[in-house]
Amino acid sequence: MDELLAGMRAIAETTRLRLLFVLSHGEFNVSELTQILGQSQPRVSRHLKLMAEAGLLSRYKEGSWVLFRLSEQTRGAALARAIVDLLPGSDSVLVSDIARLEEIRRQRAEAAALYFGTNAANWEKLRSLYVSEGDVEAAMVDLAGAGDLGNYLDLGTGTGRILSLFAGRAAQAIGIDQSREMLGVARANLEAAGLRQAQVRQGDIYALPLPNAAADFITIHQVLHYLDDPARALTEAARVLKPGGRLLIVDFAPHELEHLRDQHAHRRLGIAPDAIASWLKRADLRLVRERTLPPPRTNGSGLTVSLWLAERPAAIVAQKEQAARNRVEGNLA
């Protein structure tokens, strides 16, 4: 009771309602939130602090940034979601906030596209600056196990290196990426390798150009740290996974190398295990195995690489489909 009342008191202010609405669309740092709301940083920080203390928001530090998002597991999280659902999305103030939010996302996307376009030809060299890709690929093959992979999908395929690694074991292999420059390099690499069953397509990782349950195996290699909303990307990946299908994620462990954000378009300084666990749970995916690869001792600036293998449990899919049928039958009754 006290926790609920504290949350309600923390919400009862116009700016805080606006912040809740904005943060229901993703996570943002304080500087971005001040731009969206058009208010001073001390004012916005004070509101964020009060809502975080009430359990409505989660706050975490990542290098020099402090990022905020709606809480996910507390009673305050349920209250925050309920309040957001009640807010009129057509309200002129909220519409303006979302317009500024989308402008920030557009600027991020342009910066990332410029970076990837500029560095497409040298991507393999850039990608190997901090960790042995040979060791990472060997670990990926080990986690994937033996046997055919069926319909294989590589999200954020880049130069197509990981697509090439697994395409020979797939009935069909498709790489998805938004960068035309990257796709051009990937096509050339696939042709040189003679992988006729592999193809690449331009597409949005948040809205994949594929039907439900189209893939048996999906890889997301060194992509999540570039994304505004990794949870949404994993939920979309789960959508196109068949019941029993598997998802293999590779990314950096948390680190403090700020120059990767400033110079290499990284949105996040690594991915924490608790974040992955939360995102997978939200996407109805079950973690099967995980592995960590530390950098060589000789490389003082090296990055640790984490690997997670998850699956889409057939039982959960069946339960959701039955629940959907029950709702339809109830509406028709």
Q: What features would you describe in this structure?
A:
This protein is of the alpha/beta class and 333 residues long. It contains 14 helices and ten strands. It has helices at residues 2-11, 14-23, 30-37, 41-53, 75-86, 92-119, 123-127, 133-144, 161-167, 180-193, 230-240, 259-264, 273-282, 314-332; strands at 28-29, 57-62, 65-70, 150-155, 170-177, 198-202, 215-221, 241-252, 286-293, 305-311. The strands form two sheets. It has a seven-stranded mixed sheet, with helices on both faces. The chain has a three-stranded antiparallel sheet with strand order 1-3-2. The radius of gyration is 21 Å and the shape is globular.
Offer a quick outline of the entry.
This protein is α/β, with parallel strands linked by helices and 333 residues long. Helix content is 50%, strand content 20%.
Helices and strands, with pairings:
Elements: H1 2-11, H2 14-23, E1 28-29, H3 30-37, H4 41-53, E2 57-62, E3 65-70, H5 75-86, H6 92-119, H7 123-127, H8 133-144, E4 150-155, H9 161-167, E5 170-177, H10 180-193, E6 198-202, E7 215-221, H11 230-240, E8 241-252, H12 259-264, H13 273-282, E9 286-293, E10 305-311, H14 314-332
Parallel strand pairs: 4-5, 4-7, 5-6, 7-8
Antiparallel strand pairs: 1-3, 2-3, 8-10, 9-10
Helix pairs in contact: 1-5, 3-6, 11-13
Distance between the termini: 38 Å
CA-atom Rg in angstroms = 21 Å
Strand order of the largest sheet: 6-5-4-7-8-10-9
Mind summarizing the main beta sheet?
7 strands, mixed
> In terms of structural class, how would the helical and strand content be classed?
alpha/beta
Fraction of residues in H or I helices: 40-55%
DSSP strand content: 15-25%
- Arithmetic mean of pLDDT: 84
Q: How many β strands by DSSP?
A: 10
Overall outline = globular
